[in-house]
Amino acid sequence: MSSTRILRRLAGSLLAGWLLFTGPASMAQSSQRDVLREITDVVGLKPRFELRATSDVENAAAVVYGGKRYLLYNPTFVAAVNRAGRTDWAGISILAHEMGHHLNGHTLRAGGSNPSDELEADEFSGFVLRKMGASLAESQTAMAVVAQETDSPTHPGRTTRLAAIGRGWQQANGQIVASARTSAPSSAPVAVAQRPVVQPGRPTTPVVQASSAPVSVVGKLTFHNSPQDMLFVTNRLSVVRFDPADHTTEVVGRLTRSTSADFPFVLVDAQQRRLFVSAQGGIYNTQGQQIGRMSDPS
């Protein structure tokens, strides 16, 4: 890792800490919260980010400080991009891009920007803006204005980035079109079995039998601070706790997919707290510390 990338990440963290005391530079807090809520609503998340306006960043950045996630942006830069693109969607896409860095786990890793992470955040931005109602051109406006023409060691060139935004936009558009063509699914809740059925010869791995289709265990979760807890992931991506004393299970969270190759899954508990699961099965908190592991249940 180059010293430049390390210093960039360190500078971002120090800046976030300084902003805790100085506060935002401009833009009404109410409008900030509205934008964040609009972005997070379309992906079914709670707005657990703090948006800070400051002239001490050149454009925008996603940083973690003190266990909290921040979206920093320069209001002069955002206003200039909106003017150049002749649409407010430009500024919203910049914030969506930075949020994509957080949600894809990029801010949990050491180092600065890299082309792969930037394209993942671009794709997330395109997906979100289509869900919010932006056209493809509106979703790409900011990148068309600010992106460099050719590739660099940290950022892809303009054409590649516009294509990534287009992929995200088309993915969301496909979902919207498919939803419009089909009738609404049943709103009846799932029938939960009172007791699990335990497979013979494997007493520690429960298989929950619902009223219709079976629910099987596909993964086991082990946390460093409570290795005795029997936590499992089902084929429906629910996280359940198994009590061997009375053979009961309780749903305590869920596993969702992300667009990150390094952290392909996100664990979410009932309080909407998030942990990130690496491609190797490591479970990491928002500070980037490994606190557990997901493994085969056998």
Could you name the key traits of this structure?
298 residues, Collagenase (Catalytic Domain), eight-stranded antiparallel beta barrel, 2 domains, three-stranded mixed beta sheet, globular, 7 helices, 38% helix, alpha+beta, single chain
Structure description:
The protein has 298 residues and is of the alpha+beta class. It folds into 2 domains: 3-181, 3-Layer(aba) Sandwich (Collagenase (Catalytic Domain)), CATH 3.40.390; 197-295, no CATH class. The chain has helices at 3-22, 29-41, 75-85, 89-103, 115-132, 136-146, 158-181, and strands at residues 50-53, 60-65, 68-73, 197-198, 206-209, 214-215, 217-223, 231-234, 238-243, 248-257, 265-269, 274-277, 282-284, 290-295. An 8-stranded antiparallel β-barrel has the order 7-8-9-10-11-12-13-14. Strands 1-3-2 form a 3-stranded mixed beta sheet. Strand 2 and strand 3 (68-73) form a beta hairpin. Mean pLDDT is 80; it is low at 1-33 and 207-211.
User: How large a portion of the residues is in β-strands, by DSSP E?
Assistant: 15-25%
Largest β-sheet summary:
8 strands, antiparallel, barrel
* Residue runs with pLDDT of under 50 for 5 or more positions: 1-33, 207-211
Strand order within the widest sheet? 7-8-9-10-11-12-13-14
The level of helicity is 25-40%
CATH architecture of the largest domain: 3-Layer(aba) Sandwich
CATH C-level class of the largest domain: Alpha Beta
Structural class: alpha+beta
Mean pLDDT: 80
Counted beta strands: 14
Number of domains: 2
Question: Looking at CATH, which topology of the largest domain would you report?
Answer: Collagenase (Catalytic Domain)
Q: N-to-C terminal Cα separation, in Å? A: 38 Å
Shape: globular
Number of helices: 7
Order of helices and strands: HHEEEHHHHHEEEEEEEEEEE
